[in-house]
Every structure is written in structure tokens, then in C-alpha cells.
Amino acid sequence: MSPLPDVVTWSAAAARHDELFAALTPGARIGLVAREAPTSMLLWEASDAGIQARAAPFPGYFDSGADILLSANAAALAAIYTAVDGQLFYVMRAGIRNGDIICYMLSRRCELEVQGFDELLDALGFAFMGACR
Questions:
Q1: Which of 12, 87, 103, 114 has the most CB within a 10 Å radius?
Q2: What is the average pLDDT value for the chain, to the nearest integer?
Q3: SS3 of 27, please?
Q4: What gap in Å lies between CA 30 and CA 42, rounded to an integer?
Q5: Residues 90, 95, 96, 98: is their CA dihedral positive or negative?
Q6: Quick check: 119 and 20 in contact, CB under 8 A?
Q7: What is the CA radius of gyration of the chain?
Q8: Distance (Å, rounded) from C-alpha 92 to C-alpha 70?
């Protein structure tokens, strides 16, 4: 059994938070991998039809094709399982803050902004501010 949620559950979780994905440009990808067993990953991928969820082999962080990759330990994955029907982004944000989830931004900040990641990154606890004056 995979330590990751199943694709149907992951897709439904995205649908419940569609406002966070609305601005993403087609091709933008967010991955989730189990830190202790990184053999497969779950992906949310933006398309013209909305956010699509799918499972894929995990070829490594930089070869994953994800713009953002979340690497979750067993405790975080257990919390994600219980939160997929509700406060998923609150749980992921807390996991990032306490180190149970490591968030790898594999695209440059300016590229993430162009791809529309602002709302999603804010929900995960990463607020990008403009130039200081």
C-alpha cells in the first residue's frame, strides 16, 4: 500500500480548494512525495480543464517536473490523510512550519509568480512581497 493518498482523494482535495488553483497556468505542477519511501509521487497539474491529479513514478527532485514538491514524513502523511476532506492546506502549512513537510520550490520565484502560484504559496505560508522601497 502506498503511503500517499489515492488519486481520487487527491483530486477531490484540490476541487475543495479550487480558489487556490484558479490562477495557475496550464502545465503548473505541485508534487507530493513520501520522504521515507520516495518511489512514487502524487501530482496536481493545471490544465485548461482545471486541476488534474495523477500518480507518477518519482525520478528524483529535479527530474520530477514539479514546480513545487512537498516531501512529507510519515507523521505529516497521516495528518494529510485526515485533512483531505477539510483543512488540508492548514495541515500542510503546519507541517511545513514544524519540519514534517519540506517544500522544495524547483522553479524560480519569478517563474512561480508568472505561473500564478501566489494564492497557493500564501496558503502554504509563503508570502512573497514586492520590492522594498
A1: 103
A2: 90
A3: coil
A4: 8
A5: positive
A6: yes
A7: 14
A8: 9
pLDDT of 73 strictly over 90: yes
Closest residue by Cα to residue 89 from 32, 23, 24: 32
Beta pairing class for 68-72 and 29-34 = parallel
| Model confidence pLDDT, tens digit, residues 4-48 | 988 999 999 999 998 999 999 999 999 999 999 899 999 999 999
Number of domains in the chain: 1
Would residue 129 count as lying in a domain?
A: no
Domain range for 41: 7-121
Is it the case that residue 131 has pLDDT exceeding 90? no
Are the CB atoms for 75 and 100 separated by under 8 Å? yes
- 71 phi/psi in degrees, rounded to 5: -110, 110
For position 29, which CATH number holds? Answer: 3.30.1050
How many other CB atoms are found less than 10 A from the CB of residue 93?
A: 18
Decide if 128 is inside a domain. Answer: no
